[in-house]
Specification:
Layout (H helix, E strand, L loop, with lengths): L2 H6 L2 H9 L10 E5 L2 E7 L5 E5 L7 E5 L6 E7 L8 E7 L2 E6 L10 H9 L10 E7 L2 E9 L5 E6 L12 E3 L4 E7 L6 E7 L5 E4 L15 E2 L11 H7 L4 H5 L4 E5 L1 H4 L13 H15 L3 E4 L3 E2 L12 E5 L6 H13 L3 E6 L3 E2 L20 H4 E2 L4 E3 L5 H17 L4 E4 L2 H5 L21 H17 L4 E4 L21 E3 L1 H12 L2 H4 L3 H5 L10 E5 L11 H4 L4 H17 L3 E5 L24 H19 L13 E5 L7 E6 L7 E7 L5 E8 L4 E7 L15 E3 L10 E7 L3 E7 L4
Parallel strand pairs: 16-17, 16-28, 17-20, 20-24, 24-25, 25-26, 26-27, 27-28
Antiparallel strand pairs: 1-2, 2-5, 3-4, 3-6, 4-5, 6-7, 8-9, 9-12, 10-13, 11-12, 13-14, 13-15, 18-19, 21-23, 22-23, 29-30, 30-31, 31-36, 32-35, 33-34, 33-36
Helix pairs in contact: 7-8, 10-12, 17-18
């Protein structure tokens, strides 16, 4: 061996390298100045010969192997004639030659400032630094890999480009951050990879990339290099308008949300096992249907990558990757872009509450709890079988905050529905005695999660203005939609789970018993303005033996449909934005299953088609009259006309918009009894125009007819000076338009 090469080599590092436990391989590998010359070192086990040339293939020199069979090659050369763009010519056999730039000749692409912000939990574009990023450095094309694994002894990138050999691309750690990085020349989009992590106990783990933008289709679970830059967005006008929206303006807009599971909305009948459509194929089909039905928003379940179909996307392993089930990241960009072109908002379900225990995922990522809390009483959901994020750790906080912004900014998504917020707020959520740890004050509030929500909602509003951040929060936690500055959590909207439970209990009853449970129908208005609610009939209500919406309704088949039309009509009249899960708009009989397509064949049945027609009419009525949405969160937007008529199970109420014109009167009958001379109080004199009745024959009703226009009588009724008399159809909702006249 050359004397100067021997002098240069640090033999402790040499031993660590060969043992696969070196966390700073750039120290001993690559090109290094030494005295008046240069030292080349390369570690390529199984190589027979290695030569070095300049970028033009000239100045060729051969490296010598240091130690027989070590795979470690080195050479000292006089002078300093080589630059960092040199090439390695690696011979594994006479006809098996790899020519590549040296991965250990490139500087880090992550700065000290990046590392500082990440450690502070405030690097809101960390997804541009960590993960796998195709790029060109010094004229060399390849992929830059970076991963956070502070407890690891060593980390390697392994993949189909290096025979999954962890010895070939050991990464270096940067400063004291726990971030490992390497640039690998020649690795292109489409390459499959994982991180091989040597733990401090000596175990080898194979982990998918937490920041990967693409993954293999399950059941495979490796990450895939993806280039998510360069998509030509066509929604500039949409995005420019979005940033001008405020919390106040967004709350005054109509929101009729169609909640969807893309994989089971429609499936191909082509004999394939999954029958999935691609995002690009789905885009026009979804947009056409949503527009036809009059919905304004789509909310997508399960877009972030997840291994198990039956989790519906709520047990995520790839937080930064649209699921491969329906295509690649740019296919999903196309989907969002197409929705915007058609004027449709896109909301994603987002899961910062917990993650699954799959071996390739986030759990015990570097051999120790990293993303999850180390104490099982804080770090696990015993009944769900999942891990809970450690919200106290700044890098984990950063992972989640940046992830939300990633979808809002990189994919132009218009909003996030934050799943399982209650499980984050309460330390004892879903846990028995002894399974949870109180906070420092002895309570069950999760202070770290509260801080996360404060930080999140402040930054989302600043970094992605005009987006919709919605809480699925099932308890009476105060101030979920109040501004952070006023002590609230800062969400824009909250799902109204209390209304949903009470209302479905009421609708499930035989009408005979509804009189004694009238409060279940009316109680929601006592707290309707405590939060900014969305009225939801979501996927959670039509799974796990709960039955579809139509099968929750009592009575024979015609009564079931009449009950459901009445339920939907009341929901659309009630203050709050609207959400309905797919398939319920045409009264699918079966519970929803992710394994099969919706039962579209039911639209050949008259009753189901009529139900679909009714929901379409409701959506178009909702969008046409601002009385149904503009004052959802203002007490002036709603007034009971009659809410105490429990024996007849009827209610009537008024919805008010921005002006005295086009106010709406709802009259609801929750019994199968027709009233020939029903009278209800009304707010003013004038003429009332019947806009919609769920009892119309075209919707499958009995066809009880009223005059198109009814003049209010100056006859006191239920405390109102004026009243209307009409025929009130059985199990029906009737909507009248009127202008306010003193």
């Amino acid at each position: 061996m050359q004397e100067k090469l021997d002098q240069w080599i640090n033999w402790v590092e040499y031993d660590e390298l060969l043992a696969g436990c070196h966390n700073a391989p750039h120290n001993i590998l690559g090109l290094h100045n030494f005295g008046k010359g240069q030292v080349f070192t390369v570690y390529r086990p199984e190589a027979k010969q290695i030569f070095v040339t300049n970028a033009k293939g000239e100045q060729k020199v051969e490296l010598e192997e240091v130690g027989e069979g070590s795979g470690f090659f080195g050479l000292y050369v006089d002078g300093k004639k080589y630059k960092s763009d040199y090439l390695l010519h690696i011979y594994y056999g006479e006809n098996d030659v790899v020519v590549t730039a040296d991965p250990y000749a490139f500087e880090p692409q992550i700065s000290s400032d990046d590392l500082y912000l990440f450690a502070e939990g405030k690097h809101y574009q960390i997804y541009d630094k960590l993960g796998a990023h195709p790029m060109t450095i010094n004229g060399v094309k390849g992929t830059y890999f970076a991963v956070w694994a502070p407890h690891a002894r060593a980390v390697s990138v392994v993949g189909n480009f290096n025979m999954w050999d962890g010895r070939l691309h050991l990464m270096r750690t940067l400063e004291v951050s726990g971030v490992y990085e390497i640039f690998i020349p020649g690795v292109e989009p489409g390459a499959v990879y994982k991180y091989q992590i040597l733990t401090r106990k000596g175990d080898l783990l194979m982990k998918s990339d937490p920041y990967a933008n693409c993954a293999e289709l399950r059941p495979n679970n490796a990450s895939v290099v993806a280039d998510i830059e360069g998509y030509h967005w066509k929604d500039n006008k949409w995005m420019n308008a979005r940033v001008k929206e405020t919390r106040q303006s967004l709350r005054k807009k109509p929101m009729a949300i169609y909640e969807m599971h893309l994989g089971s909305w429609k499936k191909k009948d082509d004999g394939t096992e999954d029958g999935f459509y691609n995002y690009r194929e789905l885009a026009p089909m979804v947009a056409d249907y949503v527009l036809k039905m009059g919905y304004t928003h789509v909310e997508l379940m399960g877009i972030a990558e997840h291994p198990f179909d039956g989790s519906w996307g709520y047990q995520v392993t790839g937080y930064y990757a649209p699921t491969r089930r329906y295509g690649d990241p740019k296919d999903f960009m196309y989907f969002v872009d197409y929705m915007h072109e058609k004027g449709i908002y896109v909301i994603l379900d987002w899961v910062p509450a917990h993650f699954p225990k799959d071996e390739h995922g986030l759990g015990n990522f570097d051999g120790q709890p990293l993303y999850e809390h180390p104490d099982k009483r804080r770090g696990e959901h015993p009944h769900w079988g999942t891990y809970i994020f450690n919200y106290n750790k700044k890098e984990v906080e950063n992972f989640l905050l940046a992830n939300g912004l990633f979808w809002l900014r990189k994919f132009h998504v218009d909003g996030l529905r934050v799943d399982a917020v209650a499980s984050m707020l309460y330390l004892d959520y879903g846990k028995d005695d002894g399974e949870w740890l109180p906070n420092e004050d002895g309570g069950n509030e999760n202070y770290d999660a509260i801080h996360l929500f404060h930080h999140m909602n402040r930054e989302f509003e600043k970094q992605a203005p005009g987006t919709l951040i919605i809480a699925e929060e099932s308890t009476a936690w105060a101030g979920v939609t109040s501004p952070v500055e006023l002590g609230g959590l800062g969400f824009l909207f909250k799902w109204n789970m209390g209304w949903m439970n009470d209302f479905l209990e009421y609708m499930h009853m035989d009408p005979y018993f509804r009189a004694n449970n009238h409060g279940r129908l009316t109680f929601s208005m006592q707290y309707a303005y405590s939060e900014n609610f969305i009225q939801v009939l979501s996927h959670d209500e039509v799974v796990h033996g709960k039955g579809s919406m139509i099968n929750k309704m009592p009575g024979e088949i015609d009564d079931k449909f009449a009950n459901l039309r009445t339920a939907y009509g009341f929901m659309y009249g009630h203050p709050g934005k609207k959400l309905l899960f797919m398939g319920q708009e045409f009264a699918q009989f079966r519970e929803w299953s992710e394994k099969r397509s919706l039962d579209w064949f039911l639209l050949d049945e008259e009753r189901n088609k009529q139900m679909q027609d009714f929901v379409r009419e409701l959506n178009h009525l909702y969008a046409k009259y601002d009385a149904l949405y503009v004052n959802d969160y203002d007490t002036m937007g709603f007034e009971w006309m009659s809410c105490e008529n429990a024996q007849m199970s009827t209610v009537s109420f008024v919805r008010r918009g921005l002006s005295a014109k086009d106010q709406l009167l709802f009259i609801c009958n929750f019994t199968p009894v027709e009233y020939d001379a029903y009278r209800t109080g009304v707010p003013c004199r004038g003429r009332y125009e019947l806009l919609l009745s769920s009892d119309e024959e075209r919707f499958g009703g009995t066809g009880v007819r009223n005059k198109k226009f009814v003049e209010a009588d100056k006859e006191e009724c239920e405390g109102k000076t004026y009243s209307l008399q009409m025929k009130l159809p059985p199990l029906s909702v009737n909507v009248y338009r009127f202008d306010y006249k003193k």
